[in-house]
Amino acid sequence: MAIKILGIDCSPRKKSNSGALLEVSAATANEKLGGEAIELEVIHLRDCAINHCLACGTCGKRKDTGAFIPCVQRDKDDMAAILEKMVAADGIVVATPVYFGLPSDLFSKFIMRTRVLRHQDFKLANKPVAVMATAGRRSGGAETTILATWLPFIRHGCLIVGNGDQTCQFGTMGWAGAPGQILTDEWGLEQGEQTFRRVYEVASLVNAGKTIVGDGTPMKFSYTSGNR
Ligand SMILES: Cc1cc2nc3c(=O)[nH]c(=O)nc-3n(C[C@H](O)[C@H](O)[C@H](O)COP(=O)(O)O)c2cc1C
């Protein structure tokens, strides 16, 4: 069965390098894996209505019964559908442009709204996640962007992966300025292909493990632990 990978394009511009990097990398990885190993779905955050997290502190679970409480904005934008896709995916690849050495503001707005999943017993626990950062400059902050993008996913209990065999680096560092220029970045595309293969590999291992230990999340969210 194909491994479902959700690509999250965090660029605000149409024909983004981030989006192209996701599509081409998944396609070449798939070819190497025999043709039908990866099923990619890409969410372009720019096309989604995403409100800011209101920091209302409501989402999560009831302290008395443990029943889950959804985000108060659940029916007000597209986030509920995005969260559903994230939970259903076997792995996630985030592709972001580098903005001032950091992931895009679109990424930040989106990721804050995923907090509800963390508070609901870590619904993203053990999901492999990799990052692709595209910068206009060769030393423009791709690595700092990758590191910063990892952090929320570590808080989610995800399994952060790089680009696996060959070079085992931190994911994918694309080098491109104008839209579409990434398609000429040979080394970026190579890292992209490796990154998808690594997510595929780890997702396959996790799925195999689930047949032994079950599908339920092994992590329980607590309001009190860690408050010291
Ligand atoms: C607000 C803004 C900030 C940027 N900051 C950086 C930067 O810090 N370093 C860099 O190398 N490129 C920077 N760039 C260039 C983009 O990272 C580059 O154009 C990239 O290809 C955009 O990817 P996209 O097509 O997926 O949006 C910046 C661009 C914008 C619009």
- Helix count equals 6
Heterogens: flavin mononucleotide
Q: Tell me what the CATH architecture is.
A: 3-Layer(aba) Sandwich
Strand content: 15-25%
What fold name stands as the CATH topology? Rossmann fold
Plain-language structure description:
- The mean pLDDT is 95.
- The radius of gyration is 17 Å and the shape is globular.
- It has helices at 17-32, 79-88, 105-112, 115-119, 142-155, 186-213, and strands spanning 3-9, 38-44, 60-61, 68-69, 91-97, 128-135, 159-160, 172-175.
- It has 228 residues and is an alpha/beta fold.
- Strands 1, 2, 5, 6, 7 and 8 form a six-stranded parallel sheet that branches.
- It has a single domain, classed as Flavodoxin domain (Rossmann fold, 3-Layer(aba) Sandwich), CATH 3.40.50.360.
- Strand 1 (3-9), helix 1 (17-32) and strand 2 form a beta-alpha-beta unit.
- The N and C termini lie far apart (45 Å).
- The structure holds flavin mononucleotide (FMN).
Report a brief summary of the structure.
This protein has 228 residues and is α/β, with parallel strands linked by helices. The protein has six helices and eight strands.
